[in-house]
Amino acid sequence: MPRTLTVDGFRVRQSFGFGGLTKTATMVAAGVLVADGIIATQAPFTLLVTLPITFAVFVLAAARRHGMSALAYYWAKLSWRRASRVDATSYRRVLLPHPYALDLPGVGASSTLIKAYDPTTGRSVGVVHDRASGHMTLTTLLAPGGSLMAPTGTVQSSLRTWSSVLDAMSTDDQIKGASVTIQITPGAGEALGDDVKARQDPNAPQLAKQIVQELVRTTPHATASVAPWMSVTVDPTASANPPQDLSEQVAEALKVVDGLDLSGTGTDIERRATDVDLRRIVRSAYDPDVFNARDRDFEELSWSECGPQAADDGWEEYSHDGGVSISWVLREMPRRPIAYSVLLPLLAPGRFQRRISLVYRVLDPHEGEAVLEREISHAHQRAQATAEVKGRAKWSQRADAQRAEQAAAQVAGGSQVVDWTLMVTVTARSTADLPAARQELERAVKATRGIRMRPAYGAQGAVFAAGLPLGYNPLVKD
Question: Which of these, 42, 122, 286, 292, could form a disulfide with 308 (CB 3.0-4.6 Å)?
Fold first, then answer.
């Protein structure tokens, strides 16, 4: 593959601390040790209790488990178990009192759906309004396409155009974040047969008819429905003249999203998602059996009815209407250049419905520059501290410092710093199919040859919702 069709520059933020701790953890550790010393001046025997506990906490904070600190992992597990004991991880819509029965579960509880008129296209659009933050999310339906067979120049042009889109996001204070999601639903063979039957020429040669019929008959489950969309989260009030009422805020959000030009990015724009489209996407995610239902079946649904009747948020799975889902999140990207088609194994159809989401938050130029300067300082401080103890810095630390400096040079040349993550959700129809779904996901991740992912421990419901156009973006801070 040509070098020009590879991408790199992925790097995890790392702060500098003592003994493998982060900067914040080091400061907390210093404060705890000072407090232990002050208490010991009055009651020295307390050191027999405080020092072992403090040492154990420090060890857990420095140790790593599943790509995170062991302290954060076990604290999350303890919090989840405490919530599970009081049934805070279970949702039953029919048992909730008014007005909570009219809300979606979890992170989608503050969202509401607005049907608006878009004067640009003359059609109605669906706008998800977050009542807590005031943010609005608009979704654009995309037409599935591919560039694996495209010329090298076309792929390069698409990558440059997408970079320009991210650059436009970084200079617009009203755009808070965006996500691109591709949902692959297998078992659309029946729809394929209907489509072939409707388009078949009755005057075609008999041999051609027999071949087509044989293909439809022998591959009824080898097809899949691909539904991509892009959601953009906007703060309509972050302007010089913030709109006052709700209608003006919706109009402002539409104007901001219309300013993003996706033409030339390698995908075709189908249309702006309507309120019916959003109901279909959300409802079919919780209940895959209604994925192919007619539009009129969703027109009368309220926003709360698009969610589950019942849901249980487990440590490693999320049970909901019509299925059980498992969600994984990005742990680390390869440190080497990777092919632009690295996500192809995740996008390949399988036995189970799969949803792949790339979530973005583009930093403004000043914030991005400040972040990289801190990262360069932290990288050199880690290398210097190791050199003072062991005589020389680790090669991995030197390489990390070089990557940070390379990123700073790219930003100085006009590139943008992007916070992003990758999330994958696989939905099985029953608990019995869950091991097969987990195995299929594990194989797809390994087939990427370098991308490291892990289960979303204790956050299955939140990651499940983050892949839907509910207005929730985990990288966007209020």
Answer: 286
CA 224 to CA 292: how far, in whole Å?
12
DSSP state of 101: G
State how far the Cα of 50 lies from the Cα of 40, in Å rounded to an integer: 9
The full length of the chain comes to 478
H/E segment holding residue 370: helix 365-390
* pLDDT for res 350: 86
CB 100 within 8 A of CB 250: no
pTM of the model: 0.84
Query: Ramachandran region of residue 207, left (φ > 0), alpha (ψ -120 to 50) or beta?
Result: alpha
Neighbours of 475 (CB within 10 A): 18
Query: Among 211, 229, 208, which residue's Cα sits nearest to residue 219?
Result: 211
pLDDT at 148: 59
Q: Which residue positions in the chain have pLDDT lower than 50?
A: 1
**Is residue 115 a contact partner of residue 275, using CB atoms and an 8 Å limit?**
yes
Give the C-alpha separation, 412 to 405, whole Å.
Answer: 10
pLDDT of amino acid 421: 92
Strand residues in 163-296 grouped as ranges (E): 175-186, 224-234, 268-272
| Residue pair 455/327 in contact by the 8 Å Cβ criterion | yes
For residue 327, what pLDDT is reported? 95
- With a CB cutoff of 8 Å and minimum separation 6, the contacts of 29 are 18, 21, 54, 58, 61
User: How confident is the model at residue 194, as a pLDDT?
Assistant: 63
Q: Which residues contact 290 (CB under 8 A, 6 or more apart)?
A: 283, 284, 297, 322
Q: Which distant-in-sequence residues (6+ apart) come within 8 Å of 342 by Cβ?
A: 448, 449, 450, 451
DSSP 473: -
Secondary structure in 3-state letters for 116-136 = EEECCCCEEEEEEEECCCCCE
Q: Where would I find the beta strands (DSSP E) of 105-217?
A: 111-118, 123-130, 136-143, 175-186
